[in-house]
Amino acid sequence: MKLAREREREKPVEEEKRRNTKLERRERCNPAAVREEYSVEEGREG
Questions:
Q1: Region (Disordered): which ranges (predicted)?
Q2: Is the pLDDT of residue 29 over 80?
């Protein structure tokens, strides 16, 4: 039971890492597009 809970807690971190590497890869190709995406996400949360 504890192990399942540990995995659940680690899952968002893995997702974030995967997302970050994807964004970094895109940023190398097209920095402006990634900056745009960041500002859009911040606006949605705020």
A1: 1-46
A2: no
Structure tokens, 9: 């807690």
Please determine, for residue 45, whether its predicted confidence score (pLDDT) is greater than 70: no
Tell me the C-alpha distance between 21 and 8, whole Å: 21
pTM over 0.70: no
Measured CA to CA, the distance from residue 27 to residue 25 in angstroms comes to 5
Q: What separation, in Å, do the N-terminal and C-terminal C-alpha atoms of the chain show?
A: 36
CA–CA gap between residue 46 and residue 41 (Å, rounded): 9
CB 26 within 8 A of CB 33: yes
d(CA 10, CA 18): 13
Instruction: Give the whole-angstrom CA distance, residue 43 versus residue 46.
Output: 5
